[in-house]
Each structure stands twice: as C-alpha cells, then as structure tokens.
Amino acid sequence: MPELPEVEALAGFLRERAVGRTVTQVGVGDIAALKTFRPPPDALVGGTVVDASRHGKWLDLLVATPTGEPLHLVWHLSRAGWVRWSDQLATTPVRPGRSPLALRVRLDDGSGFDLTEQGTRKRLAVHVVADPQEVPQIATLGVEPLSSDLDRDGFGELLAARNQQVKGLLRDQGTIAGIGNAYSDEILHAARTSPFALTRSLTEEQADRLYAALQDVLEQAVAAAAGKPAAQLKDAKRGGMRVHGRTGQPCPGWDGVPCGDTVHEVSFADSSLQYCPTCQTGGKPLADRRLSKLLR
C-alpha cells in the first residue's frame, strides 16, 4: 500500500504533468470503486486541472469546471491500487469488466492516467466532491506527522491519550495521517522500540527517540521518493526498507554496523510486521500468532 512518502510523490508527479491541462474524458471501469454519484465523474470533463495534493494517504485532483464550480477527484489506492500515467493514453472506450482498470482520466494533449487495482479484494475508493471534507475518511484524519501541528509536546499527548500498542498508534489514521504498515515498522526499528510496547509505558527518552525516528524516517523517504515517476515508486519504496519485508535477512543495525541478528516477522490474518529482536525487544522474539504478546 502506498503511504505518505509515495502518495506525496504521486501528488507532485500529477502536479507536474496535469496542472493546466483540460480534462477531456473520464471513464469508469469499475463502478464499485466509485463511492459518489452526484456530481457524476463526467462533471469533470471540460474542466482545467488546478492542483494535485494529498490528505493522509488520499490523493486529490482539483479541477475548475466549466460552470465555475471547483470539484475534487479524490481517491484512496488501498492495498493493491495504483496510478498508471501515460503520455498517450489508449483511445479505446473504457468498458466495465474484469480488467484491473477502475477509472481513466484523459487530458487534452492525449496524456492522462488510469487508476488500477489488482486482485479480487477490491478496496480502491474514488469520490467526486465539491469539498474533500465531504469524504468521511478524510474529515476524520489525524494530524499530518511532518507538519508543524505535530511537535514533541503534541506527540506526547497522543502517546498519553490512551494506553495502546505503539504500532497501532502510528497506523491509526484518525490519530496520525499517512503512516501504514511499512513505515511504522521502519520508524519502530529506527527508534529501537518494540511494536507491542504500550504508549503509556514509554519513558521520556524512549518517546523522544520515537518522535525523532518518526520525523527522520518520513523525511528521508519523502526526499527519496520526490521526483520519481509513478512507475518507479513501488520499487523505490521496497528498496529503501531496512526491516519491513526483509524477514530472515540480516538486521542492518546502526551506523552501518549490523547487529548480528536477523529480521523476524509476526504474521496476522491479512498482514505481517517485521522487527529485530536484538534492536527492539531486548533479544526476546515476539510470538508469531494473532494478538501476539512478548514472550516471557
């Protein structure tokens, strides 16, 4: 699933290529992906793209329509969705069916993009709205982690608000917007913190380290993703991971010195997390079962 750094890069990619262009066609390939019906998607046709931005893990294409009413095409790529840009889109009409194509947006120079989703579990969500706050999942987003709204004191308040596993706090979109499974693993490894540590159990030093890791990991990932074409972002994300998705590989440790341990995994029903016991859990492996607790 694309997270804050990749979604920010996709917004920049679309700004560079789409702003100032006129929308000439919007085709729906998967009606289930479309979550709003008024206004319809073709209300965007004839409008000029004004901006592309991000709300958490949601992308937002702002279009000034011919009627003068600005509309937002907003979408969440979920786990298996993606933006596929083409300088010359196929001219064949979009027809609903079993294709991965969910939505196509064509611009006046023949370029544009497809929203696609692989697999059988379809979760990609597309909305056409006058205000992004009309989308409940956007209206309830928490603080942007790299904004000035989340300083160290504010982060401490989030940790103290309720006693929960720190991995869950980082991934809770209603608390902190934009962080998913992969970057929460990376942040916790950088902070040398167990994913199952309880938020109220952290010392001031541990909270300081976690806040610094959150900032550093995301800032570095945003910088690494910036300017990359959409087609390269998935591979760039995977290549930048130190522990996530690297089960069984040597832990990279710190300051270029491996710690000597290997990356471990905890599997759940539909996801998994990765961590290093030596760096994060005092050398104790976590039980690999649902509702895992630290082995004692």
UniProtKB/TrEMBL annotation:
<keyword id="KW-0378">Hydrolase</keyword>
<feature type="domain" description="FPG-type">
    <location>
        <begin position="242"/>
        <end position="281"/>
    </location>
</feature>
<feature type="domain" description="Formamidopyrimidine-DNA glycosylase catalytic">
    <location>
        <begin position="2"/>
        <end position="124"/>
    </location>
</feature>
<keyword id="KW-0326">Glycosidase</keyword>
<keyword id="KW-0862">Zinc</keyword>
<dbReference type="InterPro" id="IPR012319">
    <property type="entry name" value="FPG_cat"/>
</dbReference>
<keyword id="KW-0456">Lyase</keyword>
<dbReference type="Pfam" id="PF01149">
    <property type="entry name" value="Fapy_DNA_glyco"/>
</dbReference>
<dbReference type="InterPro" id="IPR035937">
    <property type="entry name" value="FPG_N"/>
</dbReference>
<keyword id="KW-0511">Multifunctional enzyme</keyword>
<keyword id="KW-0227">DNA damage</keyword>
<dbReference type="InterPro" id="IPR000214">
    <property type="entry name" value="Znf_DNA_glyclase/AP_lyase"/>
</dbReference>
<protein>
    <submittedName>
        <fullName>Fpg/Nei family DNA glycosylase</fullName>
    </submittedName>
</protein>
<keyword id="KW-0863">Zinc-finger</keyword>
<keyword id="KW-0234">DNA repair</keyword>
<comment type="similarity">
    <text>Belongs to the FPG family.</text>
</comment>
<dbReference type="InterPro" id="IPR015886">
    <property type="entry name" value="H2TH_FPG"/>
</dbReference>
<dbReference type="InterPro" id="IPR010979">
    <property type="entry name" value="Ribosomal_uS13-like_H2TH"/>
</dbReference>
<keyword id="KW-0238">DNA-binding</keyword>
<dbReference type="Pfam" id="PF06831">
    <property type="entry name" value="H2TH"/>
</dbReference>
<keyword id="KW-0479">Metal-binding</keyword>
